[in-house]
Amino acid sequence: GTGGQGDGGDGEEAEPEGMFKAPKDSKRKVRDYLRLAPLWLALVVLASVGVLLWYFLGYKAEVTVSQVYSGSLRVLNRHFSQDLARRESSAFRSETAKAQRMLKELIASTRLGPYYNSSSVYSFGEGPLTCFFWFILQIPEHRRPMLSPEVVRALLAEEIQSTANGSAPAPYRADYEVDPEGLVILGVRGPVPLPPPGCYRYSYVGQGQVQRLKGPDHLVSSCLWHLQGPKDLMLKLRLEWTLAECRDRLAMYDVAGPLERRLITSVYGCSRQEPVVEVLASGAVMAVVWKKGLHSYYDPFVLSVQPVAFQACEVNLTLEGRLEPQGVLSTPYFPSYYSPSTHCSWHLMVPSLDYGLALWFDAYALRRQRYDLPCTQGQWTIQNRRYPPPGAPFLSPQSPAWGAHVPDLRGAAQEEGTGHRPGY
């Protein structure tokens, strides 16, 4: 009995120990957690700082931008054909597929390859086949200044030149013999300045025709017209604004694509001062690019094109002994804009040494984009002297007239231009 009581007593004494043991353990665990809280907090802070450092120093450094380049390249073992001027032809589709593959492989062969995003060959030009294209490089933002159009052109031209001189075959040379001297690369600001496939307009205009061109697609932001005429004639484009106000821009080029070096002129915003503009190309090929303004309009302008014959501007004029205007000189197809590379020579003779010669320029202007840049839109040379002289103020568009006196028996005047304002 005693043993049983002892066992039972022991059991009775052990029961309270079991009842109070769990709460003590819970308090102990809570105290342990509290002691570890600063450590956990420190770990969370360190992880947060690590994430922030990765974001600002790592991720941010790898933010990329889309850089758009446009240009052209010349292929020596291919020649332009009429089929390549028709976008719907099988020849055009086949040639663009091969040309785009060549362009992609060329870029991939240089250190630009990792940045390649996309490209498109959208048009072809005459002579040795000229391919007009654009491509996009996806580059880290901090590297953008190091990949200027000049640097990109140098890298591509160096690659073309090295494979031309080497014996190892290059994938992009399988079908094309690319001319490094015929490579042009231009940088593009903003969105791609070329039309989507639905707004590429090709027109062939025959001799004696005046063809009205289909207007732009108002649902897109830009369109390109590729114009072609008979081989021995030059194209004359007529632009007529149909609205009083707009912000649309049109640029005309002396080649099948929008190459800035071959820009004839550009017009902007439904000009009230110039509601009708006529522009001449130097030959049978021309491109017109439209960029939509802030708003969409249906046909804010009308374009028409016709082939015209080359017009010489070589004049020999003998003046009489009368102190009054005796002749009018003008650029070809005045009041149209003269074509690029226009060169006019007028040889004037006065009756005797008692007479000089005065030339008056009515509402005519020659001006630079900036005074520290050369004048690219034309110049006058009178008696082997350029007017206005270098460093002199250029004429403003508001100047009603400007005269030059040539104190000699004979005066020879020449005008050279790249296709800007008409001379009169």
From TrEMBL:
It comes from Panthera leo (Lion). This is Transmembrane serine protease 6. The chain crosses the membrane at residues 36-57. Residues 65-190 form the SEA domain. Keywords: Disulfide bond, Membrane, Transmembrane, Transmembrane helix. It comes from the Eukaryota. Pfam families: SEA. Residues 1-23 are annotated as: Disordered. Residues 313-375 form the CUB domain.
